[in-house]
# Entry
Amino acid sequence: MPTKTKTPLNPAFHPPTMPPEGIPVKNTWKVGVYLKEVHGKAVRWTAKAEDITAAAKRAEDQLRRKPMDPAHYVGAVAEFVTAGPTAPTYTQAVAGTRATLIRGPNGWRLIKAQTVNRFARDRSNVELLLTFEQMEAMAATTLYRATGERADA
# Structure
C-alpha cells in the first residue's frame, strides 16, 4: 500500500521583496506593489496603499499628542491592522492585513506587511509602540512641565 506524501511547496512562490530600509509611506505606488505581492488574490478586506498612508497619519497624530519633543519621534513603531467585516453574519475569517511602520527622520516607512485572519466586527487599529528612550523623554518633559526641573540635572 503506497504511503501518502505531502505535495511540495509551490516552486513558483517567492516571498515579497522588501528593501532593508523599508518603503516610504509617501511612495504609494511602491507600497501598493508590495501589498499586492503580500496579499495575492485577497482584495476585499486587505489594506490598500491609501490605508497605509492613513495609518501613518493616525500614528503621527498619536505621537503629537505625547509629551515629547519631535526630535525623539524617530524609532517609534506603529502596528496597523485592517478591520473585519461589519456584518455579524460572517462566520468565517477573512483575509486582512497587519502592517508594521517605523518612524524615520523623513517620515513613516512600511517595513513589514502580512496577511492575517480578521473576523466579523474586528476593528481597524493603529497601535503605537515607543522605545525606552522615547518613554524617558516623555517622563522628562512631563517632569519639566510640572516642576520646572530638568530630569538630567
Summary: The CA atoms of residues 27 and 96 lie 21 Å apart. The chain has one domain: 23-143. The two ends are 80 Å apart (CA to CA).
